[in-house]
Amino acid sequence: xxxxxxxxxGDGGETSLLTGERVSKASLRPETYGTLxxxxxxxxLAKAFCSNDTVRRMVHSIQEDLLLLGAQLACxxxxxxxxxxxxxxxQRLEQWIEELQREVxxxxxxxLPGTNPVSASLxxxxxxxxxxxxxxxxxxxxxMLEDPWVLAYLxxxxxxxxxxxxxxxxxx
Length: 172
Description:
By secondary structure, the protein is mainly alpha-helical.
């Protein structure tokens, strides 16, 4: 059995990006990809509660995308070409939104989350993604994010999660 050893490198409040560069854990880059990790964890909760194969399949794909996006944000500009969300990721989200809305029209009023554990978890994930989107906007404003697909993906993902939560209210 392998024994885990502690590096203790983060004890001073710094972390390493995938490139090895050390940055403060409080800086916007780790804050943004950490928020994506939080969103993926909440999506995992939705997936664990869910018995609907459509929802489970979509959530799994989104979690894979969030890993990709987190890696993209944890690199410097020279390495980002290896891991990135692109237009086809955004288009897939848009296609899913359209498909789901054909089955479950969106309400024309504010929604109170909590119909069932699946939809409630998806609504929490949506709010976490919106926070990640705000953090990514801060990266863009600070000149640390040039790729327009990151913000487009996060914006569309939040829209999808709202729609998916409404779908899960009907088909948990």
